[in-house]
């Protein structure tokens, strides 16, 4: 189902790809809906146990798209530097493909706490209060990763 990378010399090893997913600040979720139109959304995320977790509103286009077609992609750019004199860019990126589902109950609370740990680790108590306040207004999307590729251009 997944094509091999055309430019194999740019392919990253598995450890480097997992590092990008683990350490990235944000990624871009790709979905497709009933109209067949691709839709992408930049989001904060947590990567754990070969799953990517996203938090979002209870409804909206991305939720509609996932309900229609739960096959998604998620792209994270680890670093990028434009090289004007070379008409190129030095970069590293990872793209994950998988199936999206929704997390509920205590698992949802656990994942929200992982967001606090990643993005606001100095504010855990305040984070718990924020989780309680927003719990019923937040949806957690879980992407069970089926395939990950990583690509880089090391030029400098």
UniProtKB/TrEMBL annotation:
One Pfam family per UniProt: Pyridox_ox_2
SUPFAM superfamilies membership: FMN-binding split barrel (SSF50475)
Matches recorded under PANTHER family: 5-NITROIMIDAZOLE ANTIBIOTICS RESISTANCE PROTEIN, NIMA-FAMILY-RELATED PROTEIN-RELATED, FLAVIN-NUCLEOTIDE-BINDING PROTEIN
Name the record gives this protein: MFS transporter
Provenance organism: Desulfotomaculum copahuensis
């Amino acid at each position: 189902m997944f094509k091999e990378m055309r430019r194999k010399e740019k392919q990253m090893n598995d450890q480097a790809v997992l590092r990008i997913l683990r350490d990235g600040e944000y990624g871009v979720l790709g979905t497709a809906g009933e109209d067949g139109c691709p839709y992408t959304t930049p989001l904060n995320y947590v990567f754990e146990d070969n799953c990517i977790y996203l938090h979002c509103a209870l409804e909206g286009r991305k939720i509609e798209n996932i309900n229609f077609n739960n096959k998604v992609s998620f792209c994270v750019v680890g670093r990028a530097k434009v090289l004007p004199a070379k008409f190129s860019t030095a970069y590293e990126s990872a793209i994950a493909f998988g199936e999206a589902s929704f997390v509920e109950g205590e698992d949802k609370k656990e994942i929200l706490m992982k967001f606090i740990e990643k993005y606001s680790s100095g504010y855990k108590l305040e984070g718990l209060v924020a989780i309680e306040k927003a719990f019923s207004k937040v949806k957690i999307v879980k992407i069970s990763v089926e395939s990950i590729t990583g690509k880089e251009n090391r030029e400098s």
